[in-house]
Predict the 3D structure of the following.
Amino acid sequence: MKAVADKTSASALDAERDTFPKLVRGNARSLADKVAIREKDLGIWQSYTWSQYFERARLIALGLASLGFARGDRVAIVGDNRPELYWAVMAAQALGGVPVPIYQDSIEREMEYIVEHAEARFAVVEDQEQVDKLLGVRTRSRHLQHLVYDDPRGLRGYREPGLSSLAELTELGTKFEASHPAHFDAELARGAADDIAIVCYTSGTTGAPKGAMLSHRNLIATARNAARFEGLREDEEVLSYLPMAWVGDHVFSYAQAIVTGFAINCPESAATVLADLREIAPTYFFGPPRIWESILTSVMLRVEDAAAPKRALVHFFLRLAQDIERKRLGRRPVPVWQRLLYPLGSLLVYGPLKDNLGFSRVRRAYTAGEAIGPEIFLFFRGLGINVKQLYGMTEASVFVTIQRDGDVRLDTVGTPVPGVEIRISDAGEVMFRSPGVFQGYAKNPEATRQTLDAGWIHSGDAGFLDRDGHLVIIDRAKDVSRLADGTMFAPKFIENKLKFSPYIREAVCIGQAGRA
């Protein structure tokens, strides 16, 4: 069975806007004074416009060029979400280089593997913690030469060769430009849609990390198609709090922000994310299930600390909202008395709660990565937050399916976004192709052949398409087995279906090897 989205696709790119640096240059001209990125520093939000975004990245690029950065060079990017690190990504791309983001909580040995595998000669990092790890890596590295840091705290006494601050790098860029006035523009013009834009390494939980190579075309076409599919606008606000090394952050906070022209917001620290979320009140939000679960837990703890009458009132209206939403998602009628009570609940509970959480302005919110508990999904949708499930992979430039507004279901991950075609193999594996399909794994042709088959991606997930074209993921394909009569058996799918019942919290299903 196949599912094909609307073939209207943005994979054809104008040569003047076919790379991210060219797109940022266009934003700097057409959206010059519009805020592109904010950062909370010492309790104060600092804003930078699209013209400043482009200029800061341009100077970083020139500074890298002064150090010998050349087309094809790799630069490791390590740290929390910071404007300077996003600018460094664009700077590398503008010179025809490739950013390689690394998870900031990686230990030195994990960083060493990626730096060596990617052959990164440069690294742009956030602070002393990352400098210390990479200085250790450099002592054993055949490639790493230059380290650039943003935050100078704790680094004033460091006199390591090849170590410089971002401020020093931009000064070098200014001097380099004086003697090479056409260098940046010439390199920018040489960039093309099919150049590698980024290499995103997998976590390596089941073996050595693999570096997925994504081109500018992959990311721009997919980001644009998904933005049009969801109706994203220039006035969106996004909280950029997820790791920069994760492809999702690169798509939401970099690719879609640049393609659409909306603003992203970098929290002060991991500890202040929820407080910063309330201040920004984003219109567009992504959270993996663990984030939604964490927010729900914090809410319920506060509810339980409230006085008994208030606690009873909140519980009553929360149960009401979830019951209504369960009926809506199940396409069942909602009784009149519940419809009449809901506005009162919105006034007394739902509205204040959304405002307190920072979700008062959310137009669309996503979750993905693993199945979200139905009670969590119903809780937030019951409040009136448009939480939807999507299905994606690094190798697809994230987007494969998204639940459409008005067509959200508890047990599916939606329908294909424009340009995506899905089919189910004879073995029940989900396969897809799209403009976002990656270029392969760096230095790993065998893994590439196992995943990429004539343009089709083997997802490794088992699933099926329902009668309305919604994709249902039932389990990892390797975990699916068969009963004695040949019936396909997916424990996780059955467990999740059981947990959709309001009377079942946890479920375990056993039935392999002919035993049911």
User: Anything to note?
Assistant: DSSP finds 16 helices and 24 strands in the chain. The first strand starts at residue 2 and ends at 4. The chain has a mean pLDDT of 92. Residues 11-227+246-259 form a domain with the Rossmann fold fold (CATH 3.40.50.12780).
